[in-house]
Write a structure and sequence with these properties.
Structural class: alpha+beta
Strand order of the largest sheet: 1-2-3
Largest sheet: 3 strands, antiparallel
Distance between the termini: 23 Å
Order of helices and strands: EEEHHH
C-alpha cells in the first residue's frame, strides 16, 4: 500500500494507533440524506433527502446543510483525506512520507504542529501529489 493505515488521536504524533475498520461510521444528521444513525460505510445508504429553499431563498430546516457525510471513528469526528493520510504516515515514520514532510518543515522553519492547521491541510494536498507522482513516475509516459 502506498499509504500506511492507522489513526492519530488527539494530534499525538508520537503515538499513532492501529486502525480498527469496524469503528468507522458515517454520520448523516446534517446531510441531505435519509437516516438518523451513524452507520459503517458498508451498511449505510445514500438516499437523497434534499429540503430545498424556503420563500426567502434560505435552505429549509436548521440542521441539514450539506451533501457530505461526516466521518466518525469510535463515535468521534476524525480528519480524513490527504491530511490524515500524510499525518498517519509521518507519525508512523513512513520511509516516503516522513522525509518529505521533514524537509518541508525544515525549509519553512515551522514545527510539526503546523500540520494541524489550514496551512497543514493545504501542504498535505501538495505533498501527497508529489508523493504519488514520484511513485508513478514513468508510467504512461
Amino acid at each position: 500500500m502506498l499509504f500506511p493505515r492507522g489513526i492519530v488521536k488527539d494530534r499525538n504524533l508520537a503515538k499513532p494507533l492501529k486502525l480498527d475498520e469496524e469503528k468507522i461510521t458515517e454520520e448523516v444528521t446534517h446531510s441531505w440524506y435519509k437516516g438518523k444513525e451513524a452507520l459503517h460505510p458498508y451498511n449505510g445508504t445514500t438516499e437523497p433527502d434534499y429540503t430545498g429553499y424556503d420563500t426567502n431563498g434560505n435552505v429549509k430546516g436548521d440542521e441539514k446543510y450539506t451533501w457530505c457525510k461526516a466521518p466518525r471513528y469510535d463515535n468521534k469526528p476524525y480528519e480524513v483525506g490527504p491530511l490524515a493520510r500524510m499525518v498517519v504516515g509521518y507519525a508512523q515514520g513512513d520511509k516516503n512520507i516522513k522525509p518529505l514532510i521533514d524537509s518541508t518543515l525544515k525549509a519553512t522553519g515551522l514545527p510539526a504542529t503546523v500540520l494541524f492547521s489550514t496551512l497543514g491541510r493545504t501542504a498535505a494536498r501538495a505533498l501527497e501529489t508529489k508523493l504519488v507522482r514520484g511513485q508513478y513516475r514513468g508510467m504512461g509516459e
